[in-house]
Amino acid sequence: MPELPLPLRPPANANYGELVYWHLQTNGTRPGGQPGIRGLRWEIEQFAHSIDITSRVIRKWHAGEPPSIASQNLVEGALFGDNPLYAEWREQLRAAATRPVVPEPAPPPAAPPAENLALPTRPDRNFGRESLADTLATECLAEPPPRILVLGGAGFGKTTLTNAVATHRLVAQKFGQRRWFVGLETATEARGIVVAIAVALGLDTAGGLAPVLARLGEAPGLLVLDNLETPWEAEEHPTAAILRQLAAVPGLVLLASLRGTEQPGGARWRLVPLGPLADDDAARLFRDFAHNVRPDDPNLQNFIAALGGVPLALELVAKRVGARDTLAESWAEWQRLGTTLAARLRDGRVRNDSLARSIDFSWDSPRLGPAGRRLFALLGQLPAGIAAEDCRALLAGDAERAESELLAVGLAHHRDGRIDLLPPIRDHAARRHPPAADDQTCWIGHYLGLAHREGRKVGAEGGREAVARLLPEAANLESAMLAAREGPDRAVAVVATYGFADFVRFTGAGSATPLRALAIACHAADDPLGEANCIRSLGDIALRRSDHAAARAAYEEALPLYRRVGDVLGEANCIRSLGDIALARSDHAAARAAYEEALPLYRRVGAVLGEANCIQSLGDIARDRSDHAAARAAYEEALPLYRRVGDVLGEANCIQRLGDIDAELGDPAARDRFGAALRLYERIPEPYSIGFTHRRLAILAAGPERVQHLAAARAAWASIDRPDLIAQYLDPLEPPPKQD
Fold it and tell me: Residue 110's pLDDT is what?
């Protein structure tokens, strides 16, 4: 092996511990390197943790204590791996392990390395925060020196950012060796700050704060205080007193990280709050670890959404993916295990070993009291977060305190005026911290009541306000119905299906999933009426979405259930809806038979709305057959019935159909009728019919007015995700392109 220039050759005749220090701190020996080329230096704590020993053992080796055979094997594996280029260095290290320690005539201890062992370590990745690191590095050069506090939730990358700033080229050029990274994770009292800084400076830990301040004040420098929340939560005022003295050191930049959103006293901090990574940066970070995964893998976006832009979660899950080239198996594991998957493959002892452990550090914070823990448990059940009025309804006088506590420890965040958890934190809350029994009953009942009360207004008077109230809660309503299906609240959930189905049917928001699950639960509980109501609601949603096959199947399944329990109104509703499907398919004979069968059933039970619907539909059959007189008579008979029961939608439908007759007969009154119907639809509001009414007005209009109606129709249907209606009914009406 050729001679290497110092210091890239291990020192001759060094003891085992001195050689280990040389490989770690001077050469940065790693399995993928080679002699003659320096690698990334190891931190002593990092190396000790990687081979599952303590840093104290390494210091004993440095003092001359021989290592065990097992320790030697671990050290060699971590430094050299199977790299044959290190054969000579491996033999040298083995020889030093067995070399007897000869005491020197004069017994001075082996001098520690001259280098600063507490230098910050450059992070391998800082995705999405590169420009922020550049900005903060520039600020570190300013006079007077700044006091920068990086705030954020569990796993948000606070340590990564502070290290990126502390190792930035500009910062390194200015401060050189006078940069210290001080971890405070184990500093469970204010004095621990002084001890940790003294260790980083190489001072006697018994000397107190005075020598620490003196050493820091010898020349300009930068001090990183990581996990400052640990001593601050333990002893707030003594911690602030120490920070005040550190902040007064001339030329010293303070760069600290703290979990949560609160700031400790003692310094005038420049606050840097960290949020989750943007989706593009999250995908870059994920694939940088799971580099075999293709960017178009169908489950990549599932993971990006589920991990919520939390860097620690992205890193740990991606490492579990390993060398796999697809995410299908990993996604199935995530759905089964959730945040349990976001952990290192072997058990660790620090908070960054797993997302769950990191979250639980915040959960155990003394800043989080009973109110905050109750809200955290509730938020684990609420995928849409919680609005202030709902928080007050569920927690009463504890609501404001609960929000403040969760925000303070960084477990929650504000989004669109709501307090919410990021997806992986919500998953952890749902799995590890379910609500107490009373709170579980309370939140389910609250949202079921909201669905029932406000949902029945959709499509009727007050519908606009009801839609505005329910739209942000769509996911929470679904969650409540799913949670209620197996317990004592199932009957309440069945009642709420009416309002929930109307909300889904008229707005296009939400999904039918809870109704299907509730129908299955009712069947298992031998509740035929509840089962029938859920199935009929599924049919109503399918019919609204023009899925006639699914709608017919649902009504034909619900009909015998209603007859079995003698529910005449439910029976009539199914028969009439089957008539609606026949009418939509222009099967007038079947449609008329259905309406004429349902009409006396409605009259028998005094269901005026059902009666009006049947009469209006018989008018539709007459109009389809160009029997304008019979159609007009039917609509004029149904109109006062709708007004009697306050059904705005039925009233608007009758007026619109009368306008259709006028338009077919060339009567200018059609425009006025369409305008009147449109105002009623907008009052509800009802985007499906709003779109069709604007289309009718576009047919009667020309020029800019026509363009405006077409745009309004497109906007209405786009709001309920109906591109099929846009393609089928609007494009043929588009004005012709301008000619050059």
Answer: 44
